[in-house]
Every structure is written in C-alpha cells, then in structure tokens.
Amino acid sequence: MITEDFVRQERSAFIKARALECGFDFCGISKAEFLEKEAPRLENWLNRNQHGAMGYMANHFDKRLDPRKLVDGAKSVISVLLNYYPAEKLPEGEEDLKISKYAYGTDYHFVLKEKLASLLQGIQEEIGEVSGRIFVDSAPVMDKAWAAKSGLGWIGKNSNLLNKEMGSFFFIGEIICDLELAYDGAVKDYCGTCTRCVDACPTDAIAEPFVVDGSKCISYYTIELKDAIPQEVQGKFENWIFGCDICQDVCPWNRFSKPHTTQEFSLPESLAGFTNNDWQEISEEVFSELFRRSPIKRTKLKGLKRNIDFVRSPK
Q1: Can you say which residues are annotated as belonging to the binding site for cob(II)alamin?
Q2: Which residues belong to the annotated binding site for tRNA?
Q3: What's the pLDDT tens digit per position in 115-146?
Q4: What is the pLDDT of residues 7-32, one digit of tens each?
Q5: What distance in Å separates the CA atoms of residue 75 and residue 68, rounded to the nearest whole number?
Q6: Average pLDDT of 267-291?
Q7: Where is the 4Fe-4S ferredoxin-type domain (predicted)?
Q8: Exactly one of 5, 62, 137, 199 is catalytic; which is it?
Q9: Which residues does 229 contact at the CB level (< 8 Å), separation at least 6?
Q10: Of 9, 134, 204, 295, which one's alpha carbon is 20 to 30 angstroms from that of 198?
C-alpha cells in the first residue's frame, strides 16, 4: 500500500534530483508557514532603522513572514542555492578598485529565474497540476530564513547563509507551491566563538553577532543609497566601489568555496583586464555595453562614478 508519506518522499526526491539537473548546487524543502522566530527580529531591525533608505524592506511585513499570503494554498517552500564563487578573480590588492564577486557576470535574477522556471516545469510535467510561483530576491520573501529552515545551511554572524560544504558565495531562490512534500530540518549553527566577520567589517556594520545594520554596510552605501555617501565613512571602504565581500572573504567556512560552473557568472574578458584607470575613465557608451545585463547597471554610471570618486578622494 502506497502511503501519503511515501508519495511526499518520492516527490521530494524527484524535485531535489531535478534541481541538480537544472544546475543548482543544493535544494531543500520546508513547510510554508509563518516565520515565528524571524518576526520579532525583523520588527526590531526595522524599528532601529537598520534598513536605512531601503524603504521597501518595511513594506508587506505580513507577506514577508508568511508565504501563504503570497501564494494561495501554499504548502511548501522549495529553496535552491546556486554557487557564484569565481575561478578567475579581479585583482583585490590594497590599491585596486574592487567589485563584489556576485557582480562579475550576468545579473543573477535572469539566470535563477530561467533555472527555476525549468525546475517548476519539470515538477508539473512529472506530478501534474501544481500551482506555484518563482521568487528571486524581487518580492517580500526572506530567502535566507527559508534556506536555513530547509537545511541548506545556517545564518552566520554576518547574516549570510553558511553551508558546511561550500561556504556562502551563493544566490538563493525559491518556488512556493501548493504541493505537500517531505520537509527537511534546520542544521545547527557552526560559527562557534569565531568573530572574524564582525572584527573585519571596516564600517562596523555588524552591529552585534547575527545582526547587520544595513544602513552602515558598504554594499548599501555603494548600491542602495542614492544620495551622497556620508563623510564619516570616508576612507573606510577599502576601495570597494560596488558591493563588498569582506565579511565573506574572512569567513573560515569559505575556504571550502569551489569555482562555480555557471557560464553566465564568469568574468568577461572585457572586464578581466580592467585597471583603476579604466574604471575612472569609463564612458557612458562603455558602461552601457559592458554592464548591459550586469548587476552593476543598478547604480547607473553616475552612481558608479560617485563611488569611485568617494574611495579615491584623499582621506
């Protein structure tokens, strides 16, 4: 006799195998329910104004905590991780202008959405009528919380998801669907007494372990903030002009990072040889062509030049 539990296990096994076929590195599944532990943390973070000018973080509070308010009849959250750690890196010396590794190639929104669409299609072809929605960091979904709930890692002191096998250089995406599945359990926290990320942050953005003050993060200043960068952080960016990888680079778990296999994330030849002079003299034409499908287009040329001028100004 085939039980409901057996069917859920079989379906979950199929979904995880299919996720790997689609190119994802890890896949976990959790029950679509209210995030009780995250609710007070999110409320406190917002009340402290640690989201800065990211006003959208305060929107849709209820939906952010309960996927059933985003997808009618939601039963499961399927979380996936896609590695973006590069085989070839841009120079990150003391004098080099730096960009976050996640921005080397094609904007991850395009890549993950395509892979998730393929995964959802595969689920529907195998199982039948399944209603679900794809999410890639563009709706009020707490990606890291769901990935941790589904056993893909734990939330580190730098607020990133850490995976024992490959560290933290991952993009996260979800499918929230109305399918009953077998659910994975969370894993324990393996940060221990380590405080390397806390100690290394030059702007003291990690206000306390596991709490990042988004309004003090270099990534916030160089990407999210549209106004002038405050003078009190002058000289503290260590030449990061788009994003920042410091808290990930110093994390001991990232010694297990492996180069990704997603061609779209590879460093393009046109960017590989970029010098400080190239960054400072970049024209609108070069910017538009080089970053046409890149995350860097978010800042526009004006924002990128603002960042470059800020880090190159005398301290």
Answers
A1: 64, 137, 158, 161, 172, 219, 244-245
A2: 226, 302
A3: 999 999 999 999 999 999 999 987 889 999 99
A4: 999 999 999 999 999 999 999 999 99
A5: 8
A6: 93
A7: 179-211
A8: 137
A9: 221, 222, 306, 307, 310
A10: 295
Contacts of 236 (CB under 8 A, 6+ apart): 202, 203, 218
26 forms beta bridges with 81
* Domains by residue range for the chain, with CATH: 4-88+105-177 (3.40.109), 196-259+268-312 (no CATH)
Question: What residues contact residue 91 under an 8 Å CB cut-off, 6+ apart?
Answer: none
163 CB-near residues (< 8 Å, 6+ apart): 26, 81, 152, 153, 170, 253
For tokens 């952080």, the residue is 233
Does 278 qualify as catalytic in the annotation?
A: no
Provide the pLDDT confidence category of residue 315 given band limits of 50, 70 and 90: low
Q: Is the separation of the CB atoms in 206 and 157 below 8 Å?
A: yes
